[in-house]
Amino acid sequence: MTRLFEEGKIVQQSSGSVPRQKRYLDESKGVEVGSLWADINPVAAQAVERVGYATQKPEALLERIIKASSNEGDIVLDCFCGSGTTAATAEKLGRRWVTCDLGRFAIHTARKRLLGMEGVRPFAVQNLGKYERQQWLAHEFSEPAQRVAQEAAYRAFMLQLYRAEALPGYAWLHGRKGRALVHIGSVDAPVTEGDIKATLKEFWQAAGRPDGPQTNTLHFLGWEFAFDLNDTAKHMAAQHKVDVKFYQIPREVLEKKAVEQGDISFAELAYVAVAVKQKARTVSLRLTDFVVNPDDVPEAARQAISHWSQYVDYWAVDWDYQGDTFHNQWQSYRTRRQTQLALETPAHGYPQPGTYRVLVKVIDILGNDTTKQFTLDIS
Questions:
Q1: What residue numbers bound the domain in which 307 lies?
Q2: What is the mean pLDDT of each run of 10 residues along the chain (379 residues)?
Q3: How far apart are CA 44 and CA 130, in angstroms?
Q4: Are 178 and 252 in the same domain?
Q5: pTM (2 decimals)?
Q6: CA–CA separation, 370 vs 236, rounded Å?
Q7: Would you call 191 helix, strand, or coil by DSSP?
Q8: Last residue of a domain, one of 211, 245, 267
Q9: Residues 90 and 179 in one domain
Q10: Within 13 Å of residue 358, how many CA atoms lie on the same side as its CB?
């Protein structure tokens, strides 16, 4: 006690009171955090970080968890992405991160949240559903060792969901729905330009037969579609005088309950038009049209839309796409507070001459991705 008194760490507030020891916070080990965390408030209705997701957690909660269990540069994994709180907090704390979710709305919410952060590093949104689809294919259909029989069972199942009838005797034409012929895309590969060419070729060979289908309409069903396929295929189909439509196979197909209840809807692939304004090494882009199938949009939302741009929730540009990760080098998106969308980019300058690939990514109000890719020659 004498030593503490000499160090100035004993205080007696008044004569006759009990002497007390001065304690400084930076010298104290503190109190261990217990298992009940009652000092972190939930996300309030008017909180800046609120994104309107039902299960959103406070960033302060994830900050405590991440700081206690990782160091800067470590990888943080969250397998239930939700509103993206883990990824956003890990990004702010200098961690790398991977986050996953089965819900399209969760991924869409998290992506917009991350894009709204100042200085966020480039990240990729990957659809890894093909692994799940492969397991589903092997589980649902017999003879997994016999690929041909398995594929035939898979196509028959898809035709049934699409309410189409089988069309035997063809390699690329798999069914008929009304007056339209139907091609079913593979489980583990996107529909490509090669698929389109092969199907068109078989289509015209069939049309030349006396018993061939009397139609000029083709429907392509796919889990994924190659970049710019809508543009390319429409051009090819116009040359061959064929009406081509693309339909997305929904993930709900993998859910037995949804199939049994009939809750399966095939959405038509959207189309985006972009105008390019180039002057020397400076380029700007403008969205000029975005076409979605209005039947895929809920009635209430459809009635509120008076201009095509209202179907766009956000769009982004990678000015030098390298064919791997999409870099959000510029983006415009809607928030609760900022409902207006910029339809034209600021001028982007290229420091060096050369040939550059530009990729435009548009996300509609349903969370679907539509891309457009083109090449710029900068001299």
A1: 271-378
A2: 87 83 84 88 89 91 96 96 96 96 83 84 72 66 67 89 91 91 87 87 79 80 77 70 85 76 79 91 94 77 87 91 81 79 94 92 82 88
A3: 38
A4: yes
A5: 0.62
A6: 19
A7: strand
A8: 267
A9: no
A10: 24
